[in-house]
Design goal:
Number of strands: 6
Distance between the termini: 75 Å
Strand content: 25-35%
Helix content: 40-55%
Radius of gyration: 29 Å
Structural class: alpha+beta
Largest sheet: 6 strands, antiparallel
Amino acid sequence: MAWSYRKRIKVIPGVHLNFSKRGISTTIGVKGASINFSKSGTTVNTNVLGFSTRHKLAGSRPNPVSPYPGLPENQPYPLEENIFSADIHEITSQNMQGIKEAIILAQQQKKDLTSDLKKITRTLSITKTKKILSYLFLYGLIKKKFQKILIRTSKCSRKQLSKPKK
């Protein structure tokens, strides 16, 4: 039989710590809109008139399956598209030095491109999170402003009702 555990603790208004069997996460937001940060990623939750939606912004992804299961991870993969050959004198030089340098250069370029892609992905994720947080902040400000207006209106109405009619 499966078991589960979940506990939510309010740290400050709008910030909660969530404890479950999967780990600890943090939820930030107001009723109807929140962002959850956990080890499995960042998720945006919205709820309007009983309709809710979850959108995953960033997080851990499953390990990709290698298209070439026989090859180790650190070795280059076979080419699937166009193959261009070098000059015959470069390839047949002593100990194939030219082809070795070309392979080493290609591997270094692959590492550089992979690290650039990770940086861009991280920056994009942070930008999306900032955008959602700014929306939540604006929503909170607007909500407070409307509450103040409603309170003032209700006070004025009470004053008008409490005045004796002549």
